[in-house]
Design a protein that fits this description.
single chain, mainly alpha, about 65% helix, elongated
Length: about 70
């Protein structure tokens, strides 16, 4: 996603119409931020993993509303 933003989204902003850019890339930066937050939360949980007590379902439940962006 970072590559798409850096090498496609940013250059297109000066070449394409705003309507085209919105149609193609409207949520890409939001999706990147959701992915980063999900990764951070999972990394944090996994860093103190205990096979008997650690759970990750709440991380996905908290992030689930943002999956609609995909």
């Amino acid at each position: 996603l970072e590559i798409i933003i850096e090498f496609y989204s940013k250059p297109l902003r000066s070449l394409a119409t705003p309507k085209l850019i919105i149609g193609l890339l409207s949520n890409i930066e939001v999706i990147l931020n959701v992915n980063r937050e999900l990764l951070r939360s999972l990394d944090e949980r996994l860093s103190s993993w205990n096979e008997e007590t650690t759970q990750i379902g709440d991380v996905f439940i908290r992030t689930a509303p943002f999956f609609k962006l995909y």
